[in-house]
Amino acid sequence: MEEKGKSLDEVGKAVLAEDLRSPCTEEIAVFQAFAKVIQEADKKFVVMDTAPTGHTLLLLDATGAYHREMARQMRKEEKEVATPLTQLQDRNRTKVLIVALPENTPVQEAAFLQEDLRRAGIEPWAWIINNSFAATATQSPLLRLRAENEIPQIELVLANHSKRAALVPIQYEEPVGVERLLKLSAMKNL
Prior knowledge:
Layout lengths: L9 H12 L1 H17 L14 H24 L6 H6 L7 E4 L3 H16 L6 E7 L8 H21 L3 E5 L8 H8 L5
C-alpha cells in the first residue's frame, strides 16, 4: 500500500487492498520467494525445511504449472528455459533429502512426500532418520524400549524407500554451527 497505493485515489486504494487480501496474492508471493531461493542455489547451499503438507504440494504444483507455461511459450522461440521445477529435477544441481523421525507417522508422511516428489520428476537423493534412540548406547530401559520400537521403521525406510540413508542419534545439543555439523557428517551412514 505504501509503495503502489501512494498515488491512488480512495477507490484505487480499496481495489488494491482487496487484491492484497486475495489468497492468490499470497500464493504468488510464496511462489516468487520459492523461485528466488531456488535461483540462489547457484551460489550457495539452499536448505528448505518443510513438512509434507499441502503447502509443499502447492509449491510443487505451482512450480510445475509455471514450468509448463514457460515451456509452452518457449517452444515458439526454440529456447531452453530453466524453471524452478527443472532446477529441482536436475540431480547434478539439487540433492533432496527427506528427514523423518523413526516413528510410524513421520515415516509414512515422508514416504507420501517422496511419492509426490517422484510424480513431479524429483528423485530424493537420501533419507535422514533423525533423533534416533536406536543409534545411541542408552542404558535406560524406557529409552531402550523406544529404540527397539524404532528398528522396524528404520528397516522399512531402508527396504522400501531409500538405498541411501543416514541414521542420526538424538543429540544432547542441537547440531548448530559448523563444528557440530562436521561432527554429524563424520558419523557412519546406513
